[in-house]
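Team,

Forwarding the record for the chain on the shared tracking sheet. I've put the sequence and predicted structure together so nobody has to dig through attachments.
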Amino acid sequence: MSMKFLKGVDAIDRQKWEKLLDESKYGSPFQSPAFVNVINGCSEFSSDVYAVESDGELKALCVIIFKKKKGMKSWFSKRIAYGGPLVGNIGPDEFTFFLKAIEKDQKKSATYLEFKNYFDYSSCKVQFLDAGWSYLPYVNVQIRLEGKDMAGLLAEIKPNRRREISYSEKEGAEVRLISSEEELSQLYEILKDFYSQINVALPHYDYFLGFFHSPLSKMFGVYHNGQMIGGSVCHFYPGKSIYTQYYCRKKGCNNRIYPTHLAIKAAMEFGLRHNLQAVDLMGAGMGDSYRGIRNYKKQFGAVVENGRYFKVLRPVLFHLRKIAVNTMGRLKKKI
């Protein structure tokens, strides 16, 4: 058995990559060539792509993204693999080899690595822990679509949310896919205002513009009386799932209209039309963190613990980063 560690888009055969993505139960848009193309075209982000090949077969692949930083900020860089690694027919020794090779390369520039899992990686847990990774019990909220229709999915939503969807539709609110850059610009302004209210940084506009032109993203606008009042940004991969990354509601819109509810319903309808496996509402925190967000999301679907794997690569810099982040958090609260 001959194992080969591959680094960079040009080192990985595109057909083998797409075959692994189609066949793996861990396939998601976040590990796709299209996702890498958008990320590498952004002013704010870049990516590293790794794979392991054995006897001519691609066994695993991982897309890791990071913010571009200069000067001292670059010392504290974190690296994230959204969705977790793309794993195929791989043995324990091959997977351990893959993890250690990624760590060795990332240690040159990253403070820590984090795999935000959207799948159950319990079959790889021993290899992660033996390689010195920590497991964090983060949860996601998922709406499973297989074997269901819209009536069945609506019946599973908590009664209050169902009523609020009904109110919104009776008030004349509607959802449609955003089809122009002008509409995208409107959505971005609402997103920016919405996320500033909860002190969450939003990527630059070119991030959204890149995904708007990508085949793996769908953006929904919620409209009332001809005006956009909210929406969502979603990513999907054919035959897999759709992920709702961002939602928003315009400040001051009709109180009997619930744009985020309608955006979630639109993702469900899109998933059913395209025979997708699930709508993933993405992060819902851990323990007491994000409790409000988790309580909202679980009105629509089931809480699933896929967890995260976390590895500190440079302990001193990680500790300094943690102090800086905590200090900034306290300052923001005072402001």
